[in-house]
Design a protein that fits this description.
Elements (H helix, E strand, L loop, with lengths): L1 H22 L3 E2 L1 E4 L28 E4 L5 E10 L12 E5 L6 E4 L13 E5 L23 E10 L4 E11 L1
Parallel strand pairs: 1-9
Antiparallel strand pairs: 2-3, 3-6, 4-5, 4-8, 5-7, 8-9
Length: about 170
Amino acid sequence: MARIKSTLLATAFIAVFALPGAAFAQAALTVKFTDPAWDGKTVPKTATCSIDGNTGAMTPALELSGIPEGTVKITESFNDETYKPMDKGGHGVLGFDVTPSGGAATIPSVPGESDQLPAGVTVVTKNRGTGNYDKPGWLPPCSGGHGNLYTMDVNALDASGATVGTAHVELGHY
């Protein structure tokens, strides 16, 4: 009897906790930079913030593939992995409305330090910069992060807002 109870409890645990996780499996997105200046090793000098004297910094344009059916939005979360207060979207999160074709889509580059973005692009989460770094939208790598590793998390979202695909991309060191 104890063995049956133990087996039933284990089965119930698996049914309640393990199976729902299987329903939330996420596809691995394939991400490719369209501009050769973005090589994943070094952040281009033209993609740094205005505090460094650069104006017109842009996010990298991307070609995505492996996008799951039902995806309606792609988000890009910009991170400084070396400086933990600016990791996990600390440099801002942008959203791009998409209609993938054959599981693929092109994501345009957009300006940094601005909430004036093209149609279909929104600031999902403002960057966490303070003081001179308190800028709208995406905050490009800045002088305080020389030598730091910058990354981007790309997520495919369905109409309910659930994440259905992901990729972690190294933008490079600054």
